[in-house]
Amino acid sequence: MNKKGIEVSMGFIVTMIIVITAFGFGLVLIFKFADQKDELAGSISEDSKRSITQMLEVRGDRVAIPFQTIEVQKGKTAFLNIGVMNVLSDRDYKVSVSSKMIDQNNGRYIATGGTAFKSCGTQCIVFTNAGAVKDGPDYYKIAEVKTTIKEKASNVFTFPIVTKNAEKGTYNLEVDVSYDGESGFTEYDVTHTVKVVVN
Fold first, then answer.
1. What DSSP letter does each residue of 128-168 carry, written as one string?
2. For residue 128, what are the domain limits?
């Protein structure tokens, strides 16, 4: 009887250890997914919103990019926010982000579109050495988003910058905004350059 009681107690202890371990792994997974969700949810800060509103509504800019240099730690995600004010009638607008390789011979990673970060499709800027769509000599179109903006309204385009595979260094991104005119998409503003510094 005493032996049977010890066996039952040992079985109970083993079961409790397994349950506690499984519960711990479950908590770790929940926190991991919550962190990723929070990272994406925080894509536009209050400072960025204020800066974009100031540039579009007070200064009268057509295109507003609050930060010309974006610093990000390798492995983290940063965000490129671009505000567009429509001064025309209701139109479709397209924001394209391109990258020029710094040096073709040193094996630097280039920024490409979203296959490595599928949750946001063509809206992502991912640093990888995978192929990209060539858009002229040494230029690569890496992200593009289209949307309709009503007359005298604005829209903020947000592009996540995923640096998991990035080499440390400075990367130049070129931002072009165009609208759908009578003969296709027409340039809406000058090309803007944004530097991404991966630390």
1. ESS--EE-STTEEEEEEEEEEE-TT-EEEEEEEEE-TTPPS
2. 42-198
Distances, alpha carbon 144 to alpha carbons 73, 98, 112, 172, 186, in Å: 24, 9, 11, 16, 15
| Cα–Cα dist 118/13, whole Å | 43
Instruction: Decide if 25 is inside a domain.
Output: no
pLDDT tens for each residue of 40-53:
444 667 777 888 88
Q: Is residue 83 one of the residues assigned to a domain? A: yes
> Count of domains in the chain?
1
Nearest Cα to Cα of residue 110 among 136, 135, 139:
139
Closest by CA position to 101, among listed 142, 158, 157: 142
Q: Tell me if 37 is assigned to some domain.
A: no
Tokens describing residue 13: 């202890």
Q: Is 63 within a domain?
A: yes
The model's confidence at residue 39, banded by pLDDT at 50, 70 and 90, is: very low
Tokens of 140: 């690569």
Residue 149 belongs to a domain with what CATH number?
Answer: 2.60.40.10
CA 47/CA 70 separation, integer angstroms = 14
Structure token digits, residue 180: 């759908």
Write out pLDDT tens, residues 88-123: 999 999 998 887 654 444 444 455 544 444 445 555
Q: Which of 180, 152, 166, 172 is nearest to 95 (CA)?
A: 180
pTM (two decimals): 0.65
